[in-house]
Amino acid sequence: MTEIVYLNGEFMPLENARIPVLDRGFIFGDGVYEVIPVYSRHPFRLPEHLARFERSHQAIRIQNPSGDADWTKLVQELVARNAGDDQSIYLQVTRGVAKRDHAFPKDVKPTVFGMSSPLSTPALEAVEGGVHAITAIDYRWLKCDVKSTSLLGNCLLRQTAADAGAVEVVMFRDGFLTEGSSSNVFVVKNGVILATPKNNLVLPGITYDVVVELAQANGLRLEVRPITEAEVRSADEIWVTSSTKEVLAVSTLDEKAVGNGKPGAVFRRMHPLYQDFKRAVMRQAA
Ligand code: PDD
Fold first, then answer.
1. Catalytic site includes residue 143
2. What is the reported pLDDT for 228?
3. Which residues are CB-contacts of 49 (< 8 A; sequence separation ≥ 6)?
C-alpha cells in the first residue's frame, strides 16, 4: 500500500507531495510539529498532543490553521488511509511560502503537512536489556519547550550518540539534567523516581505526563525537581521516554553500567504499568 500523506487540503501518495523551495519550513525551519502514536488504529492521548501543538503555534506566532476537531478528523483520515494498526502520525505546520526575509511575511498561508509511518516501538531485547546512552552538554536554544521543526541542535547531538553506537544522548545544561535529543529522561535513586521540572529547557513530553500519572496512581515515590549531573551519573536507574520509545531503561551511560547494568526494579514496575495503561485506553476507545 502506498503511503498516503496530507498536504494543504489534499490527500496524495507521498511521492506526489511537493512544496515550493521558498517554504519557510525549508528555508528557516520555521514551523512546529507533533508526533502522535497510534495503537490498534486509535491515536494515543490525541487531545494532549493537540493542546501542545496549539501552544507551539502560539509560541512561534503562527495562527493554528485548524481547531482540534479538524485536526482529529485529519489524524483519523491519515490512519484510515494508511496500512498498519500501529502508526506514528506526524503533523507539521510551517509559516508558509514567502520571499526570503527573516522577519515574518504578511498574509501568508501556513503550509500544513501530515504523514503516517509504521510505529516501531522498542524491540523486546531493548526493553529487557536496556539501551546505551551517552552524555553531552545541551547547547540547544532556550525555547526547548516549543516543539519546533528547527531541530539542528537535536540532530547534531543525536548523531554523537549514533556515532558511539548509542540510542540516545542524555544532556546537561549548567550542571543539571535537561532531556534527550528526542526524549525526556527520568532517574531513579534509592527507589525514588526523579523527574525534571517542566520549563523552557525541556519539551513537555506527553509520555512524561503518562509516566508521572502512573507513578502517582500506583504509589511509586516520585519527586519533580532539578536533577544534578552527579545524581544522573550515580543513579540506580535512568529511563528515556517518548511517544515512539515509550519507556526504555538505559543500561550504560558513557559506557559505564547504570545500576547493575540491567533495567532496574522500578523500571520493571513502570514498563508493564505503561503497557497495561495503553491497552486499557485502546480498549476504551474501541
Ligand atoms: N520527540 N524531548 C524531545 C526533545 C523530543 O523530541 C520528544 C519527542 C520528547 C518526548 O515527547 P513525547 O513523549 O510527547 O513524545 C522529549 C518525537 C517523538 C520526535 O521528534 O520524533
1. no
2. 98
3. 34, 36, 43, 206
